[in-house]
Design goal:
This protein is mostly helical and 126 residues long. It has 6 helices and no strands. It has one domain: Four Helix Bundle (Hemerythrin (Met), subunit A) (Up-down Bundle). 69% of the residues lie in helices and 0% in strands.
């Protein structure tokens, strides 16, 4: 996985095309998916702030649970890169790999910001 996230328009960063098709690809589906995107992006940096605080306090299990929830909430947005990075971080947290956690956290942070930027751009074009 490259250190630099790809363009926010990259389908591995954000894509609701499959979700829209699955839901009927009509106005009702668009309204529902729009709400899903808004809800998923609404917390902004809060989950990452919570994780950083938990890691700083040595609460690695709690940090892993937060990332598990984050992975679930953005997974429906086609955020494959964030999901993969988040899973790697969850595994490092579970293994208490304190040497590897900072770099993985930086990667997750970059990928999460790419998802937020892409989600914001998608919402703005509606």
């Amino acid at each position: 996985m490259p250190d630099t996230p790809r363009s926010p328009t990259d389908d591995d960063v954000f894509s609701v095309t499959t979700l829209l098709k699955y839901m009927g690809n009509d106005d009702k589906a668009l309204a529902i998916v729009t709400k899903i995107v808004r809800d998923a992006c609404a917390p902004r940096q809060m989950p990452l702030d919570q994780v950083r605080a938990a890691i700083d306090d040595g609460r690695l299990v709690e940090a892993g649970k937060i990332f598990h929830g984050l992975r679930g909430s953005v997974g429906s947005l086609g955020a494959k890169r964030l999901v993969a990075a988040s899973l790697a971080l969850e595994q490092a947290l579970a293994a208490r790999d304190t040497a590897g956690i900072p770099a993985l956290l930086d990667t997750v942070h970059a990928e999460y910001n790419a998802v937020l930027a892409a989600g914001d751009a998608w919402l703005a074009q509606l």
